[in-house]
Amino acid sequence: MGPFMSPFNNLLCMLLGISFTVWFTLLLVFIIVPAIFGVSFGIRRLYMKTLLKVFEWATMRMERGAKEKNHLLYKPCSLNSIIAKESTSLEEELKDIRRNCSSPELDGSFDMSDAFYFCRRGIESIVDDEVTKCFTAEELESWNLLTRSNYNFNHISSRLTVLWGLGVVIRYGFLLPLRLTLAITGVGLLVVLTAMIGFLPNGRMKNFLSEKVHLMCYRICVRALTAIITYHHSENKPKNGGICVANHTSPIDVIILASDGCYAMVGQIHGGLMGLIQRSMVKACPHIWFERSEVKDRHLVAKRLSDHVKDKSKLPILIFPEGTCINNTSVMMFKKGSFEIGSTVYPVAIKYDPRFGEAFWNSSQFGMMNYLLRMMSSWAIVCSVWYLPPMIRQEGEDAMQFANRVKAAIARQGGLVDLLWDGGLKRGKVKDTFKEEQQKLYSKILVGTQEVRSRS
Amino acid sequence: MGSTNSTLLKIPNVEVLMQETGFSPAHIIRLHDRFKALDKEGRGHLCPHDFGAIKELAMNPIGDRIIGAFFSPGKETVDFHTFVKILAHFRPVDKDRPKEPNSPEPINSRSNKLKFAFQLYDQDKDGKISRDELLQVLRAMLGMQVTDEQLESIADRTIQEADLDRDDAISFEEFRKSLEKINIDHKMSIRFLR
């Protein structure tokens, strides 16, 4: 059996060797080299267009199937709302209710119908409330052949099932290993090269090399996610000594922004792999990492940030003021800390296209590893990034008002809903101050005017 | 109607539910999604603390009372049917529904809406809003923004105006009479889309 096996063995080894070489050459030529130089062959966009056509075909078949069986093909409303909420204020409502009563003016007397306003508002919030909506992934209008986005999509014919099966094979069998290889390459190169650059003396050479290395590694990571990003208004890109603020949907936001420009990151030092990456990155250029204990000290944080922006040779800081991941349909309250520092703010709006893969990280539903797996096994991450013109805090404007102004600009550009709610509501309880505000408003209407009456 | 959907088929007795409440299949599906979203632990029923997790409701001065309206006395859970039936009170009145003499009154009739509002005041369910109960609601809606004296004077005035049989409490009939000029349909209805 010996001599019989060896030609086969040789053949097998040769074939394996050749296929590996071919594989790596293709990888290098089509993906890594363009990443190094920042050019693109346009393969990903072609891929995106093909996918869109396939999705449209799939939806058409489902609709046809539904019509044949005379069923209701349930298409979720794109704004996820069941009811139309009245946006009248408490005062207007009360006046309206009493209009039909004997005393038409709001003369400060309580009427039992006043409770109707609160009752209706309460029931409306039970049926549909803004905050819960922000923390669940957006629903799609058509199916994108991923089981995870299949909400109530029925009538999947056998042809579609075959297509879906093919999709699974392509995504898990071909795309996932490819992406994992790229991700490992990207992260590995980042750690090794930045550590090497750390040995150079501080100076222009070091900064130049650090910039190139960071960009290259982030670009490889972008390709590891098959992220197809469109940057708008690059003339407004953040400059040194400024702070870049953006809306937050997932940890991938960092990679998306950092592959187009160099930023100083801000964050807590983690352990494990993340910590290793953080420690080697900071050798090459000054990022701002905080110890866990330092994070609570607001003054310390503010001081380090303002020291950084004062030094014009340092890179712009990247901050996500919402503080938590939101589902990319709206923008929640910005924390005012970064707006108190007094430097130029460069707002950036990021909007993901959910048709190719849901980028929102619902941290209560799945952890980081699960999330990364989902990211790497979706079709692609497609998003648009808009660089907005820089904004400065104006005279007589406090940090909160400035933050709201920036938030409104970002929401407008990205087509997102501008909400006043605090992202901290994802986990925390509502503060009693909100309820007190409602009570204050109502009592002003009732009792405020009553005082006037009793005096006259 | 003729059109169904497999989600609908998963809900038990859904035809009866639609008939009793008047919701369309699309509404039932949306409400079912909402029910599932509120039922975070997937137990198939809701308890008071699931409602308490809705932030806008926690902000509402009479939020607790509204939550209480979903739970009949002694019960600590709400299933989907009860959830939908209570919400059905807030459907706009069907103006062109034929008045069949023997059929029970629809859940969203003017009278039933008033009964719902009445029970927000009448917490001990004895059929009357006593002076104390009125004071409690007023305190909930006004918080610490008014003094006790102001609260008492408001309560006194209200009872004086509404209490016709001078028993120092407001019965359901007196409640209904004092609100006869109010457009209940508009104020106690929610516009359901589609």
From TrEMBL, chain A:
Domain Phospholipid/glycerol acyltransferase: residue ranges: 242-353
Membrane-spanning residues: 20-43, 156-174, 180-200
Keywords carried by this UniProt record: Acyltransferase, Lipid biosynthesis, Lipid metabolism, Membrane, Phospholipid biosynthesis, Phospholipid metabolism, Transferase, Transmembrane, Transmembrane helix
Family membership: Belongs to the 1-acyl-sn-glycerol-3-phosphate acyltransferase family.
Source organism: Cyprinus carpio (Common carp)
Example GO molecular function: glycerol-3-phosphate O-acyltransferase activity
Annotated compartments: Membrane
InterPro entries linked: LPCAT1-like, Plipid/glycerol_acylTrfase
UniProt protein name: Glycerol-3-phosphate acyltransferase 4
Pfam families referenced in this protein's UniProt entry, alphabetically: Acyltransferase
Record GO biological process: phospholipid biosynthetic process; triglyceride biosynthetic process
Pathway connected to this protein: Lipid metabolism; Phospholipid metabolism
GO CC terms in record: endoplasmic reticulum; membrane
TrEMBL record, chain B:
Keywords recorded for this protein, A-Z: Calcium, Cell membrane, Cytoplasm, Lipoprotein, Membrane, Metal-binding, Myristate, Nucleus, Phosphoprotein, Protein transport, Repeat, Transport
Broad class of where this protein is predominantly found: membrane
Listed GO MF terms: calcium ion binding
Domain of life: Eukaryota
Residue ranges of domain EF-hand in the record: 109-144, 150-185
Entry keyword annotation includes Cytoplasm: yes
SUPFAM superfamilies reported in the protein's UniProt record: EF-hand
GO BP of this protein: protein transport
Gene Ontology CC: one annotated term: plasma membrane
This protein's name: Calcineurin B homologous protein 1-like
Organism encoding this protein: Cyprinus carpio (Common carp)
InterPro entries, A to Z: Calcineurin_B_homologous, EF-hand-dom_pair, EF_Hand_1_Ca_BS, EF_hand_dom
Similarity section: Belongs to the calcineurin regulatory subunit family. CHP subfamily.
Cellular compartment(s): Cell membrane; Cytoplasm; Nucleus
A UniProt-annotated Pfam family: EF-hand_7
